[in-house]
Design a protein that fits this description.
alpha+beta; 16 helices; Ald_Oxase/xanthine_DH-like; 6-stranded mixed β-sheet; Xanthine dehydrogenase family protein molybdopterin-binding subunit; 33 strands; 7-stranded mixed β-sheet; AldOxase/xan_DH_Mopterin-bd_sf; single chain; globular
């Protein structure tokens, strides 16, 4: 299946008919084609270098001792036995941190090593460097820590009245949003309570890194960072060094749907390397990975929707409580997204929303794809299903009567100035043919919801069709200074791109090559590896690198293009706008001039450096009002699910997707990103939940934490990609991966509601919640 334009600003899914000859593929060159990633062969062959593969002469191995308790006072730490074990070079604790003891992505409230108390299960206490990995682990286990166990605060609702868990208090942020008239009521009102579980990013490769001391007293850290300059600054502050004494070199990133590397891995590494004067390597176990990095915020949401008798929304009331875990991290940003998008892509004239993010003794929460937006999407779409049922309307009809469009207002008071083709997206998924029922295709093998060997009976299976509309913001928000810098060099027939934008699987490296090919007509383009000697490009999240870093590459390439064309234009007495570059050839509008790029360069090297900085945003005020976002992206998904109403097992048959993408820059890459996003959303809907008991993580491994595999993935049909370009975005493109993650869980829940008649207010959906009411009544 491939994406083709229908001539009306959209891309639709098409499949060549049987017997129709397929035309030969055009050369892969420039924007709009499916240029394959340069690193694809190495990754497929297993030769691509990741942090866990690194080696250095005289290497030592690190191990970290982590707290077995979610909350406890530390009475003493005795490292003597560990330090005396064979092969052990050094043991470090909080006493050995020479600089700032606190660090954190958003708020520096998290210690490198716990000092007086531990605040979550898995918090680092000490670290060891030894000559063998087993020696390091044994020494870490030999560190004697005396704890006074405290009662953990694990219910975020109790955090308001509990004693302070942190010197900064338990409340991280409260956003009261007031829009319109708070006293307005509708003719019809529906209420709902929703709970969203703790999803883990579960990267393919666990955290790993290598720290190498430098002769000048500094250190180099090799790791799969997604925000190397922030990590460098955190490390320098912790080590008591200047930022230029710490260098972060980004290795291959084995998947990233969140902040890829927890500083709790990098900071002990660098500290051990500085103390020993030797290279030190750490490769975390899967258990350590689960305990250390940030997860999606578990969220409790209470909603009340008011509407007129015809289904027109009048007011939304909501209370949103996000569990940040032990430390603030990026919880303030996640809460801002949740509150701002609490009404969804619908026109709501009045809104009263309160959002809180609080500290608990649960595992840390932080940035994860679609943070804040996913949680509220599951809730407001559940409310739209309830409202449709109350009014006797079809779920898609109630949504169409209220969808947002360009020019409408968010409940933050911000005008939606970007393309917002929400109605078009919903029409596309609604009108797509539904998959056949088993009785319509008796020759096909029917998979029961329990799998190929499902224990249920076909007579107990009900099919449900559900809908969901989702939205996310692009780039940072609330005054974040978004900027990226890129350098483009060209010599002969080869171009080089230098930009500190980390390739996390989003396809930035491929996009950078395409931009230079398109602008300069050079086929061979190399993208340099990333380190902090380069100017910063910011974090790899919110589609930043497609927009900001891609924009910087484009501007630099255009500056080189001007340098290349100006001498020719001057020689022939014309402006550079009258010259064009295609397939490595420079031609004039009248055909008088025709030469190659290599001939025009004449052995010279041309280069330029440029920045891209989108227009500024502003923080939300005391009423939750403000122009906080640069742009928005939208998605519609129709889910078809089979549910065994006796066993509660669920099989998602098909996910039909229509998405607002601005412009398709790489069709195959875009389709892959959407399919991956839908699958990750499916995991949040049906299986992914990092379970805890009184703050203790249960089964922190990939047997206890279920992830969707190829056997769980449904048919994903991308029926429409709306190419309505955002005029303020470079190339007019919108980031693509976050919004299907946000929308998919709500669509699955909607389909299960349709099949069972149950309210489905918890994600992931538990089997007992998917048992139809009539079955429960019969068994009562």
């Amino acid at each position: 299946m491939s994406g083709t334009s229908d001539g009306a600003g959209t891309v639709t899914a098409t499949t060549p008919a049987a017997g129709v000859p397929v035309p030969p593929e055009e050369p892969l060159h420039g924007l709009g084609v499916s240029l394959p990633p340069a690193d694809a062969p190495a990754k497929a062959e297993g030769t691509f270098p990741y942090a866990a593969d690194l080696w250095a002469e005289g290497l030592l191995w690190a191990a970290v001792l982590r707290s077995p308790h979610p909350r406890a006072r530390i009475l003493s730490i005795d490292t003597r036995q560990a330090a005396e074990m064979p092969g052990v070079r050094v043991v470090v604790t909080h006493e050995d941190v020479p600089g700032d003891a606190g660090h954190g992505r958003g708020t520096a409230d998290r210690p490198v090593f716990a000092k007086d108390e531990v605040r979550h299960h898995g918090e680092p206490i000490a670290a060891v460097a030894a000559e063998h990995p087993d020696a390091a682990r044994l020494a870490a286990a030999a560190i004697a820590v005396e704890y006074e166990i405290q009662d953990a605060v694990t219910d975020p609702q109790l955090a308001f009245e509990a004693e302070p868990l942190h010197p900064d208090g338990n409340l991280i942020r409260h956003i009261p949003l007031r829009f319109g008239d708070p006293d307005v009521v509708g003719e019809v009102m529906v209420e709902g309570l929703y709970r969203i579980g703790r999803q883990d990013p579960a990267p393919i490769g666990a955290e790993a890194g290598l720290a190498v001391p430098r002769p000048d007293g500094g250190v180099e850290i090799y790791t799969a960072s997604t925000d190397p300059h922030t990590d460098r600054d955190l490390a320098a502050a912790s080590f008591g060094l200047e930022p230029d004494q710490v260098k972060v070199v980004v290795t291959g990133v084995p998947g990233a749907t969140a902040d890829r590397e927890d500083p709790g891995v990098q900071l002990p590494l660098g500290l051990l390397a500085l103390r020993t004067g030797c290279p030190v390597k750490l490769a975390a176990t899967r258990e350590e990975s689960f305990l250390s990095h940030a997860h999606r915020h578990p969220t409790l949401l209470r909603y009340r929707h008011h509407a007129d008798a015809d289904g027109t929304l009048v007011k939304v009331e909501a209370q949103i409580l996000m569990d940040a875990g032990a430390y603030a991290d990026t919880s303030a940003d996640a809460l801002a997204a949740a509150v701002s998008f609490s009404c969804g892509p619908y026109v709501v004239p009045h809104a009263v929303v309160d959002g809180w993010a609080v500290r608990t003794n649960n595992p840390p929460s932080g940035h994860m794809r679609g943070e804040g937006a996913l949680q509220v999407c599951a809730a407001y779409e559940g409310q739209m299903d309830k409202l449709a049922a109350r009014l006797g309307l079809e779920p898609d009809e109630i949504r169409l009567r209220n969808v947002m469009a360009t020019g409408d207002l968010l409940p933050t008071g911000q005008t939606v100035t970007c393309p917002a083709p929400v109605a078009e997206l919903l029409h596309a998924v609604k009108e797509a043919p539904l998959p056949e029922l088993p009785k319509d295709a008796p020759e096909a093998e029917w998979l029961l919801p329990g799998g190929p060997e499902g224990a249920g009976e076909p007579g107990a299976v009900r099919r449900g069709v559900g809908y969901a509309l989702g939205m996310v913001h692009m780039l940072g928000a609330e005054g974040t200074d978004e900027v990226s810098t890129a350098t483009v060099k060209v010599s002969g027939s080869v171009a080089h791109v230098i930009c500190a934008a980390v390739e996390t699987g989003s396809g930035f490296s491929t996009l950078a090559r395409q931009i230079v090919q398109e602008t300069l007509g050079v086929d061979e383009v190399h993208v340099a590896g990333v380190d902090t000697d380069q100017p910063p490009a910011g974090a790899a999240c919110h589609g930043r690198h497609t927009w900001v870093s891609g924009g910087a590459v484009e501007r630099a390439a255009k500056m080189v293009r001007t340098q290349l064309l100006q001498p020719l234009a001057h020689k022939f007495g014309m402006s550079t706008e009258l010259l064009q570059i295609n397939d490595g050839k420079i031609t004039s509008y009248d055909g008088v001039l025709s030469t190659t790029v290599a001939e025009a360069l004449d052995g010279k090297e041309l280069w330029a450096t440029a920045q891209c900085r989108p227009h500024p945003t502003e923080p939300l005020d005391e009423n939750g009002q403000g122009d906080a976002f640069v742009g928005l992206a939208f998605c519609a998904i129709r889910c078809v699910a089979d549910v065994d109403i006796e066993l509660g097992t669920i099989r998602v048959v098909e996910m039909t997707v229509a998405q607002d993408v601005g412009r398709v820059l790489n069709p195959r890459q875009l389709r892959s990103r959407i399919e991956a996003g839908v699958t990750q959303g499916l995991g949040a809907a049906l299986m992914e939940n990092l379970r805890t008991t009184r703050g203790q993580v249960r089964h922190p491994d990939l047997t206890g934490y279920s992830l969707p595999t190829a056997l769980d993935a449904p048919d994903i049909r991308i029926v429409k990609l709306v190419e309505e370009r955002d005029v303020i975005a470079p190339f007019g493109a919108k980031p693509a991966s976050a919004v299907p993650v946000v929308t998919a869980p709500a669509a699955v829940a909607s389909a299960v509601r349709a099949a069972t008649g149950r309210p489905i207010g918890r994600l992931p959906i538990r089997p007992q919640a998917a048992v139809a009411q009539v079955v429960q009544q019969q068994g009562a």
